[in-house]
Design brief:
36% helix, elongated, four-stranded antiparallel sheet, binds zinc ion, 398 residues, single chain
Length: 398
């Protein structure tokens, strides 16, 4: 135990020494813009990240995608395998696997960097994607460097999966995320931490989306409105129903977010459409919410209501495995003389998929900062060393 304590202090020192290097690399990452919808841009950034890993001797596999950016699978063999494992690699599973999840894409369109350039001011590094989550991608590179510097090594094989479409629902990456998770003993997610104290996320709500389309009948709003069926009126009634589905105590929220309808100011609208955001704390509630949505029936005579329910991202529940993993992280922070908190959040991440498979998942291990998806997005530079040391400690301890 005393040896381990010494290890964490050494890791912290090594990681802190790399803070300037981390900020420099973060600047390069942020200037290489990578919005989810732009394959060429995401691939450019992916190539940059791949180079960093190859330089460190990792095996990088590019998982090609046609429509979205390519995903990267980066593997670092457990050192133990080289010493004792079978040469064909079949000894791998004896040592287990840790999966580290991150995403290459950001929510910012190309050109955002001109309006919010990367800059370091007041101890913070500002810019699009600094916090969500290019900062996290930088931290884990420094973690690997710090481990090497003190002569420590991951106990298990580590697979880093850098995906290209997290910000738009992970449609093309979900399968590979789940198949790697099934082979893993734990999943570490580099999403931003919560609050100024950098709390980890041990509970996340499930996320779903739906679309409601109402069809009525157009008519002149002044001359013969009685011949029309007002689709916007019908939609308003449906939204009132949706609002009744909210259940704070159970952690269920249902919100109509984007609403459109009508064609001209003097026409009874024939069509209306609403996007619906759905969040839920328990796996068991997903089906019930979906059934309720599909069960929506028109209220006005002559109106038609169609409900399309999209894929549901299951919640990350605070299971025993999650609590245990958090305990390890907190212990490592304690060895550095620091505390670590945990929190629940309404936002989803790819950690939701892995946790739903029953694989212990620790989320929010990325940078400390604020303002994700906004003009004031930034990370706190002074915390980068600590976070990198924590990641290094986890890779060595798990
Ligand atoms: Zn993210």
């Amino acid at each position: 135990m005393s040896e381990q304590t010494l290890g964490m202090r050494d890791l912290l020192r090594e990681a802190r020494r790399r803070e300037r290097e981390m900020v420099r690399l973060l600047g390069r990452f942020v200037r290489c813009e990578s919005p989810s919808g732009d394959k060429a841009a995401v691939d450019r950034f992916g190539a940059m990240v791949a180079r960093e890993w190859r330089r460190r001797g990792a095996v990088v596999k590019i998982l090609r995608q046609r429509l979205r950016g390519d995903h990267l699978r980066v593997e670092m063999a457990a050192e133990a395998r080289r010493e004792f494992g079978r040469r064909d690699g079949s000894g791998d599973r004896d040592y287990g696997q840790i999966l580290v999840l991150g995403h290459l894409d950001t929510v910012y369109p190309i050109g955002t960097i001109a309006k919010m350039p990367f800059r370091v001011r007041g101890g913070r590094a500002w810019g699009p994607g600094t916090f969500d989550m290019k900062g996290g991608l930088v931290l884990v590179l420094a973690a690997v460097d710090a481990l090497r510097a003190v002569g420590m090594r991951p106990r298990k094989r580590v697979v880093f999966l850098w995906t290209s479409d997290e910000e738009i629902g992970s449609e093309t990456s979900r399968r590979v995320i789940e198949s790697e998770a099934r082979r893993s003993d734990a999943v570490l997610v580099l999403e931003p931490s919560l609050g100024r104290e950098g709390r980890l996320k041990t509970e996340r709500k499930g996320v779903g989306g739906a679309e409601i389309i109402v069809t009525g009948r157009a008519a002149h709003a002044g001359i013969e409105p009685e011949k029309g069926v007002n689709a916007v009126h019908e939609m308003a009634l449906q939204i009132a129903r949706l609002m009744k589905m909210n259940d704070r105590a159970r952690g269920i929220t249902v919100q109509a977010t984007v609403v459109e309808g009508g064609t001209a100011a003097n026409v009874v609208p024939e069509r209306a459409r609403a996007a619906v955001d759905i969040r839920f704390a328990r796996v068991a509630d997903a089906g019930r919410i979906e059934r309720e949505l599909r069960g929506l029936r028109p209220i006005l005579r002559g109106a038609r209501v169609e409900v399309r329910v999209g894929g549901m991202r299951p919640p990350l529940e605070r299971s025993a495995g999650v609590r245990e993993l958090f305990g390890v992280a907190r212990g490592l922070m304690k060895e550095m003389g620091l505390s670590l908190g945990e929190a629940a959040t309404g936002g989803g991440s790819d950690g939701n998929f892995t946790a739903a498979l029953g694989v212990p998942t620790l989320d929010g291990l990325g940078a400390v900062g604020d303002g994700a998806h906004s003009l004031r997005e930034h990370v706190v530079v002074r915390e980068m060393g600590v976070r990198a040391a924590l990641l290094a400690g986890l890779l060595a301890a798990l």
